[in-house]
Write a structure and sequence with these properties.
- There is one protein chain.
- This protein has 469 residues and is mainly beta.
- It contains 6 helices and 26 strands.
- The strands form 7 sheets. Strands 1, 2, 4, 8, 9, 10 and 13 form a 7-stranded antiparallel beta sheet that branches. Strands 14, 16, 23, 25 and 26 form a 5-stranded antiparallel beta sheet that branches. A 4-stranded antiparallel beta sheet has the order 3-11-6-7.
- Strand 21 and strand 22 (367-374) form a beta hairpin.
Length: 469
């Protein structure tokens, strides 16, 4: 009788008894210190009921400079990942796409990141005092003891989006997670400790001074921790076997990604072949992001120039409280320091936006999407309409969007399809989609990163798998 009523009008409760939870620590196959571009592999436990979304990696981190300069850990610990692949019985399931960390920061730029932990994931770059352990940073930022470890959580791809997120690994071949660490360029390198005052502009002076020698990092004591569940009844096994007997397999949809990058000059082209192409993420980086660089000050936030004395001659670095580059009252929460690693700073690179305004138009098999050229306000509006979930309390000005968070998003599926497990994106399998992103105003030699988010379907039955991309 109540089957036709919506959930908000229905009174019910379900009870499942005999449930137990536990956590396991997994060590990588290759132990010891890990440096840039190294490959790390973890094997997930077999014959276990595992919660994929609770997977996290703990590690210690040490930074070093190639001279007397300093170094900082970048925003978000997922910055250390350049590629992440998942194999099942030697078969590639999650595509090992490059620039994983770029996509992470692209989603963060729009507030669409689902990272649930801000305590262990190093969300901000410190200047002189660590926000992680409260210690003064003399030159390089490092955390070397077990009580100050950092963590990587909320992974993109299979671990973060597979539904259901609790799987019986006994149904799968051996699951191996392979992570390729990023290059040293992700580490912001700064000048000597004496110069680690507030920046004088967004790109020069103080902590924003570029070090000549560059910096590097080392990760150690890496472990993966997973949550394993137990059930006293065999109800889940019976449901699984019934489903396999009915259709021949279990269907597990998840988000997969394909990445493309190019030195953009009016047009960037790519080809995508997928059963359900849902979203295109696009972000732009200046040439400075590909080399050793100092942190970038986020527009509007504090730089040097405010004194506690009326006479600037009596100023000392210890009394510099800084001034906002927007109104001095600190509108839009800018009455604070805020930095972003240069390689994750996305910006509109247009030599003369007044004369030649920046416009965008996406072409798919020669069809324009949309049918008109988008200005920056229009493409931002389309972008936010393309995201199912984002932080609505987050404050960002249009100026910050153009200087620090210049990311676009184009959606091709139904809104909130991922929540209802509906693959409603573009089906380009019969003829691969020939795509081109055409712009006006963007300066040549700007790097354009493009990520195609697709819904892949993993079909599993008796340790045999089939992947439909």
């Amino acid at each position: 009788m109540s089957a036709g009523l919506p959930p908000n009008l229905t009174y019910f409760m379900s009870r499942l008894q005999g449930v137990s939870t536990s956590h396991f620590k997994i060590y990588p196959q290759n132990t010891g210190n890990q440096t840039a571009n190294k490959i790390i592999r973890f094997e997930l436990p077999s014959n276990s009921l595992m919660n994929l979304k609770s997977t996290r990696i703990f590690f210690n981190c040490t930074t070093a400079s190639n001279g007397s300069e300093g170094a900082r850990i970048p925003n978000d610990t997922r910055s250390f990942i350049d590629r992440m692949a998942i194999y099942m019985g030697g078969v590639l399931v999650q595509n090992s796409f490059s620039n994983y960390n770029i996509l992470v920061h692209a989603q963060k730029a729009l507030g669409a990141d689902r990272c649930s932990d801000n305590t262990l994931t190093h969300q901000e770059i410190p200047r002189l005092t660590s926000y992680h352990n409260g210690a003064t940073i003399s030159n390089t930022e490092s955390y070397t003891t077990p009580d100050v470890q950092l963590a990587i959580t909320d992974f993109l791809g299979f671990l973060g989006s597979a539904e259901p997120s609790i799987i019986d690994t006994g149904l799968f071949p051996q699951i191996t997670i392979e992570i390729t660490l990023a290059d040293n360029v992700i580490i912001p390198s700064i000048t000597a400790a004496a110069d680690q005052t507030l920046a004088t502009t967004s790109t020069t002076g103080g902590i924003a001074d570029v070090a000549s020698g560059g910096a590097n990092y080392t990760l150690s004591e890496m472990t993966m921790q997973v949550e394993v569940l137990g059930m006293a009844s065999s109800m889940l096994d019976e449901v699984v076997q019934q489903r396999i007997s009915q259709v021949g397999y279990l269907s597990i949809p998840f988000s997969n990604f394909f990445s493309f990058s190019s030195t953009h000059s009016t047009t960037s082209r790519f080809i995508i072949n997928s059963a359900s192409w849902n979203i295109l993420w696009v972000c732009w980086s200046a040439a400075a992001g590909a080399s050793d660089a100092a942190p970038q000050v986020v527009a509007g936030h504090k730089i040097a120039g405010s004194f506690v004395s009326t006479a600037s001659g009596s100023y000392t670095g210890g009394f510099d409280v800084g001034k906002c580059t927007y109104d001095l009252g600190g509108v839009y929460n800018t009455n604070s320091e805020r930095y972003v690693a240069r390689c994750f700073n996305f910006e509109e690179v247009n030599a003369n936006p007044t004369t030649v305004p920046t416009t965008f138009q996406l072409q798919i098999n020669s069809a324009n999407y949309p049918a008109y050229k988008l200005t920056i306000p229009e493409v931002y509006s389309l972008t936010m309409n393309s995201i199912d979930i984002y932080d609505k309390t987050r404050m960002m000005t249009l100026d910050q969007y153009r200087k620090n968070f210049f990311v676009q998003c184009y959606r091709f599926d139904l809104p909130e399809s991922s929540y209802s497990r509906v693959a409603s994106g573009l089906d380009t399998r019969s003829s691969s989609a020939q795509c081109a992103l055409v712009t006006e105003g963007i300066t040549s030699a700007t790097t354009c990163f493009m990520f195609c988010e697709v819904t892949s379907e993993l079909r599993v039955a008796n340790r045999a798998i089939e992947l439909i991309t």
